[in-house]
Design brief:
Strand 2 and strand 3 form a beta hairpin. Helix content is 40%, strand content 21%. A 4-stranded antiparallel β-sheet has the order 2-3-1-4. The chain is an alpha+beta fold. Helix 2 packs antiparallel against helix 5.
Length: 141
């Protein structure tokens, strides 16, 4: 039978088998991934954005990328993502989670964070725009 099947048919059958396996595995998961367990209800989160001045996109990126391992290495930091808009170079979004606002403020007092903020007047339009939020965990499944 395999001799009679086209390459396209075989490819379609293989993709279908892989998708069925992935769906079965996804259904078997009984809750959120293990990383969520360390985030308390009401944790302090921040969604912030900064936009580079025209022509300063690469400089802002170079100044910002070193923050990733530093912030993630902070024992009080629970989650940290740095993202850049795929369609607007130099537009960065930060997502950070700390157990409390005091932990976040202690993070902002770190010398590497203060040094980064000191560079922003030359690199960014209007500084950092931030939304300070709280994590709502919801009911357990």
């Amino acid at each position: 039978m395999i001799e009679e099947m086209s390459v396209s048919s075989i490819r379609t059958a293989l993709v279908g088998a892989v998708l069925l396996g992935a769906l079965s595995q996804a259904r078997a998961q009984t809750g959120p991934g293990p990383g969520y367990a360390g985030i308390p209800d009401g944790a302090f989160s921040v969604i912030a954005e900064v936009r580079a001045k025209p022509g300063k996109e690469d400089a802002l990126r170079a100044a910002t990328l070193p923050l990733v391992p530093l912030v993630r290495g902070d024992p009080k930091n629970l989650v940290y993502f740095l993202q850049e808009d795929r369609f607007s170079s130099g537009h960065f979004i930060f997502y950070e989670v700390f157990a409390s606002e005091a932990d976040f403020e202690a993070h902002n007092a770190q010398p590497y964070v203060r040094a980064w903020f000191a560079q922003l007047p030359d690199l960014a339009l209007g500084g950092v725009q931030a939304m300070k939020m709280k994590v709502l965990r919801g009911a357990a499944p």
